[in-house]
Amino acid sequence: MRRVYFDYNATTPIHPEVASFVQPLLSEVFGNPSSIHWAGRDARPYLDEARRQVAALIKADEGEIVFTAGGTEADNHAIKGAAYALSHKGNHIITTKVEHLAVLNTCRYLEGKGFAVTYVPTDGAGLVDPDDVRRAIRKETILASFMLANNETGTVLPVREIGAACREANVLFHSDMVQALGKIDIDVVRQNVDLASFSGHKVYAPKGIGALYVREGLEIESLIHGGHQEGGRRAGTENMIGIAAFGKACELLARDMAEENAKIERLRGWLLRGLMERVGDLHLNGDPERRLPNTLNLSFEFIEGESMLIGLDLEGIAVSAGSACSSGSTEPSHVLLGMGIEPEICQSALRISLGRENTEEDVDYALEVIPGVARRLREMSPFYAKKGKL
What we know:
The chain contains twelve helices and twelve strands. It is of the alpha/beta class. Helix 5 (about 130-135) runs parallel beside helix 6 and helix 7 (about 240-280) crosses helix 11.
């Protein structure tokens, strides 16, 4: 049976060049980069180079990069760190209901600690109006957090304009850019962000490594205390294998992403057009234009998304019923609900996310398989029969 992986927004396979690059760190280059002897000196260049590589991809300075254990830690560090550092100025935070749970649950945690959170609405495509952000800002507002690209729908938010609104009001601005890295251009200066979160395993590096951009001159509270690693901002011996891999992955993205994303976007468009022609009662969730080049979020009306996922898995096609971080939940997607989509449509949603290894043959196979799976499941649906579709 053919196996097709369409869940690149959940995680990515390690790039072969990345895997080859870190081989010496598995055996020969084992030193602690903080050590001053030869073993530490051998390791240190990998750390410094990775910091330069990550910074270059997002148009930052290398001193503004703090390596973390992943995107979730980076989100937590940014939001909690800024909130605690600025608590003497105010206690108000602004975000949306369509953020990743790493942001939403951090904000909910802070609400339990006496902070107030305003959840700015989105439209039906998941977009935020920067003027709504301006209206939500009050004198005690200290932080706003808005993702650059939604991990479920692929909708790209107007982060530059939101950041400008925050800067006008002297409010710190954090953006979860985990899903956007490598898929669209990022320039943290032009996008007016003070803090930004990234994750290695979304860009063909290993799991367990991420980064937080902290604008030069900005001081936030640390989450982890101990030694003086990462300029005193994140204690603990650095994950050298993960860091070197993340840096190399960013270097490869800088080299290849324009060509690869053009190919991926073409495949995504081909898949969407084919499904729209072959599958009725199919809805595209998210903005049809302002979206990541690789992501489709589709609702197959009259079908449970989980049933569709299982049916496709039996045919060798790996997709997602939403965020991988919410896997196992029977609740409709909080992202789609936050966009005002009806619960029944939310329950029928699948996320299809393509990546660098997908081919035309993968899309052809999907177009053969998906309509048939949808048809079989609808034939078992009493709701479909009641609508007079059978």
